[in-house]
Design goal:
mainly alpha; 31 helices; about 60% helix
Length: about 600
C-alpha cells in the first residue's frame, strides 16, 4: 500500500497559521543556507597534528548485478518487480554502474496497464533516480494514467527537468473543472518553476478570486511571482488593501507577486508590508527588500531585530551585517544570545568576519564582551566561540569564569577558546578544572565533559605546561569512564611535552595500549593511534619493532594504520606503503549473484 501524505498538514480553516506555515518553510531554508557557511565549531588540534590522510578508495565491483536484476524485472511477480526496482534506485546512489541498462524493463513496468501500483511507483522512482530523461514523456503519461500518488512523485521532477509534455498537462489542468486541489497545486508549482508565461492570466485569476481556498491562492501567487519581473504592482496594491476576506492571506499573496519586481512602486509596497503585524508577512517583505538592496531595510532593521519572530530578527540582522558601521555592530551583537540557535550562530560567524576590518574590529570586540558578561548561556557559548576564533586574549579571565558553567555548550566552547588564546595566567585554573573533572567523571560520564577535558589538555600542550603531566598520565590506563577524547588528548600532549626525550616508564605504558587490542573491552583505536604518534615524538626507538609487527600484520586502512606508518617513518625513516586498497563492500542487496564473476565495469 502506498503511503499518502497530505501536502498541507495543518488546518486550512485558519489562514493565519497557513500563512505562517508557508513563510516559515521558506525562511527556515534561508536561515539554514546562510548559517551553513563557516559556522564556528570547536575542533581538536590533535586531529590535525600530525596531518593524517586516508588513501582514496576505488570502487571495484566483481559481480554483475545488472544482469540478475534485469531478469528479476522480467518476472511477473509483483513483489519481485517492486523490490528489484527499489534496489536499483538504491544501488545507483551507491555507485553500482551500468544500471541504465535496466531502463527498458522499468519503462515496461511503468506503462503496462496490468502492473501493480506499487511496482509501477517503484519503477518510476528508479527511472527518476537513474536520471533517465529520455523516459520523461513516458513518466508524464504514466502519471496522468495511473493515479495521484504517481503524479506527486513524477511532476515535481518534470518541472526540474523542464519537460514540455508536462507543461501542456499543467496548462490544460488550469482550464479543467473539478480538478483536485492537490493536482492544481502540482500544476501551479510546475508552471512557476519552468516560468511558463502563458499561465500568467489563469493563475492571476485564481489569486484575485477571494472566495478560493487560501492554499490554492497562496500557491498560485507564488507561481505568478516567478513568471514576470514587472507589471504586477497594481494587483499587489489591490491585494494589500483588500480586507473583505483573509486580509493576511491577501497581503502574503501581494508579497509573492513582487518576488522578482524591482520598481520604485514595488519597493514602496514592500516597505509598508515589512511592518505588517503578521510576522510571516513582515519577514517575507524584509527578505525581498534585502535581496533588492539592504539600504531599504536600514530604517526598519533595529526594530526588526527586537521582533518576537526569529525570521524578522534575521532579516534585520542581515541588513546591518551587509552594511556595517561601529554603531550597527552593537544591536547585532546582542543577538549572540538569541533564543534561536541558527540566528545566534549566523551572527557569531558574521561578527568574526567583520572583526577583521580595522574600522569595525574594536566595536565587535567591545560589543561582544558586553554580551559575554551577561548570565545567559546562549550568549556565553557564542561569545566564547567568537573570542576563541579571534584568539582574543583579553577575554581570558571571563573564559575561566564561564569554564565553571554546567551547561554543556558553554563547557565545550570555553575550554576550546582557552586552548585557542593560550594565555599563561589561565594555567592554574585549567589544571584545577582538570583535577576536579577527573573526579567528577568517575561518578557521571558525559560526552561534553570528555570534550572539555580534552580541550584543556590541548591547552596545556599549547602552553607547554609540564605541571599537568601527572594528570595526563592518569588518563593513560584503559578506563572507559575517562573518555576516548580526554585520554587521546592527554597522550598526544605527553608526546609533545616529552618530544625527543623519551621516558622509559611512560613509553612502556603507551606501547602497552598499542599491544592491548584483544582484551575485553578492547582498547580504543583512537587511543592506540595517539600512543603511536607520541612514541614517535618521544623518539622511543626501542618500541619500533613492536609497531612494525602490527604493520606487518596488515593494518587496515584507518587513521590508526596511518599513524603507525607516520610513527615508523619518524623513528626509523622507513617508508611503508599505504594500506592495501580493497574494493568497497558491495552491500547487502535484495537479489545478488551467488558467486563473484570476472565482471569489471
Amino acid at each position: 500500500m502506498l503511503c499518502r501524505t497530505s501536502i498541507f498538514p495543518f488546518d486550512l480553516k485558519h489562514p493565519v497559521m497557513l500563512s505562517r506555515h508557508f513563510v516559515s518553510i521558506a525562511m527556515l531554508l534561508c536561515l539554514l543556507t546562510t548559517a551553513a557557511y563557516g559556522e564556528i565549531k570547536p575542533d581538536f588540534l590533535m586531529q590535525s597534528d600530525p596531518p593524517l590522510r586516508l588513501p582514496a578508495f576505488e570502487k571495484i565491483y566483481v559481480r554483475d548485478f545488472k544482469s540478475i536484476w534485469v531478469q528479476a524485472l522480467q518476472r511477473p511477480e509483483v513483489d519481485l518487480q517492486r523490490l528489484t526496482a527499489e534496489t536499483i534506485a538504491r544501488a545507483h546512489k551507491y555507485g553500482i554502474p551500468n544500471l541504465v541498462e535496466t531502463v527498458p524493463d522499468l519503462e515496461r513496468i511503468l506503462l503496462e496497464p496490468s502492473s501493480h501500483p506499487t511496482a509501477r511507483y517503484a519503477a518510476a522512482r528508479a527511472l527518476i533516480e537513474l536520471n533517465s530523461r529520455d523516459s520523461a514523456d513516458k513518466l508524464v503519461k504514466a502519471s496522468q494514467d495511473f493515479g495521484a500518488d504517481l503524479r506527486q512523485l513524477v511532476e515535481p521532477v518534470m518541472a526540474e527537468w523542464n519537460v514540455a509534455a508536462a507543461r501542456q498537462v499543467w496548462l490544460k489542468r488550469l482550464e479543467a473543472k473539478n480538478t483536485r486541489p492537490r493536482d492544481l497545486i502540482l500544476a501551479y508549482r510546475g508552471l512557476g518553476k519552468v516560468r511558463e508565461a502563458t499561465a500568467l492570466q489563469p493563475l492571476l485569476a485564481v489569486v484575485m478570486d477571494l472566495i478560493r481556498s487560501p492554499d490554492l491562492r497562496l500557491e498560485a501567487a507564488e507561481a505568478v511571482g516567478q513568471l514576470v519581473e514587472s507589471g504586477l504592482e497594481e494587483n499587489s496594491d489591490k491585494l494589500r488593501h483588500e480586507t473583505r476576506t483573509s486580509p493576511i492571506i491577501n497581503r502574503r499573496c501581494a508579497i509573492h507577486f513582487l518576488a522578482r519586481h524591482d520598481s520604485e512602486v514595488a519597493r514602496r509596497q514592500l516597505l509598508e508590508l515589512a511592518t505588517d503585524a503578521e510576522p510571516s508577512n513582515a519577514a517575507a517583505a524584509l527578505l525581498r527588500l534585502n535581496e533588492i538592496d539592504s539600504n531599504l531595510v536600514l530604517p526598519l532593521a533595529e526594530l526588526a531585530m527586537k521582533n518576537a519572530d526569529v525570521h524578522v530578527r534575521m532579516q534585520g540582522a542581515i541588513a546591518y551585517i551587509k552594511l556595517p558601521t561601529p554603531a550597527r555592530i552593537v544591536p547585532v551583537a546582542q543577538l549572540l544570545d538569541d533564543q534561536h540557535p541558527t540566528l545566534r550562530r549566523h551572527v557569531c560567524t558574521e561578527l568574526v568576519r567583520l572583526a577583521e576590518s580595522p574600522e569595525l574590529g574594536d566595536a565587535v570586540r567591545s560589543s561582544v564582551m558586553d554580551v559575554f558578561n551577561t548570565d545567559r548561556w546562549q550568549g556565553q557559548e557564542q561569545c566564547a566561540l567568537l573570542f576563541g576564533a579571534l584568539q582574543f586574549k583579553p577575554a581570558a579571565a571571563r573564559l575561566v569564569e564561564v569554564l565553571e558553567s554546567t551547561r554543556p555548550e558553554v563547557m565545550v566552547s570555553s575550554s576550546w577558546a582557552l586552548r585557542r588564546i593560550a594565555v599563561p595566567s589561565t594555567i592554574p585554573p585549567i589544571i584545577d578544572k582538570i583535577k576536579r573533572q577527573t573526579v567528577a567523571r568517575r561518578k557521571a560520564f558525559t560526552f561534553e565533559l570528555d570534550h572539555q577535558v580534552a580541550h584543556l589538555f590541548e591547552a596545556c600542550r599549547q602552553m607547554n605546561v609540564r605541571d599537568a603531566i601527572p594528570q595526563m598520565v592518569e588518563y593513560i590506563p584503559k578506563d572507559m569512564l575517562m573518555g576516548d577524547y580526554s585520554r587521546s588528548a592527554a597522550i598526544w600532549a605527553l608526546g609533545w611535552l616529552y618530544e625527543g626525550n623519551p621516558d622509559k616508564a611512560l613509553a612502556e605504558q603507551l606501547i602497552g595500549r598499542i599491544t592491548d587490542p584483544t582484551t575485553m573491552p578492547p582498547e580504543s583505536w583512537m587511543v592506540r593511534q595517539y600512543c603511536a604518534i607520541s612514541l614517535a615524538r618521544m623518539r622511543a626507538v626501542e618500541h619500533a619493532p613492536t609497531m612494525r609487527g602490527y604493520l606487518a600484520e596488515g593494518t587496515p586502512a584507518s587513521l590508526y594504520g596511518m599513524a603507525l606508518r607516520w610513527a615508523m617513518k619518524e623513528l626509523t625513516d622507513e617508508d611503508f606503503p599505504p594500506p592495501k586498497i580493497s574494493g568497497l563492500a558491495e552491500g547487502a542487496w535484495f537479489l545478488e549473484p551467488l558467486f563473484p564473476t570476472d565482471y569489471r565495469p
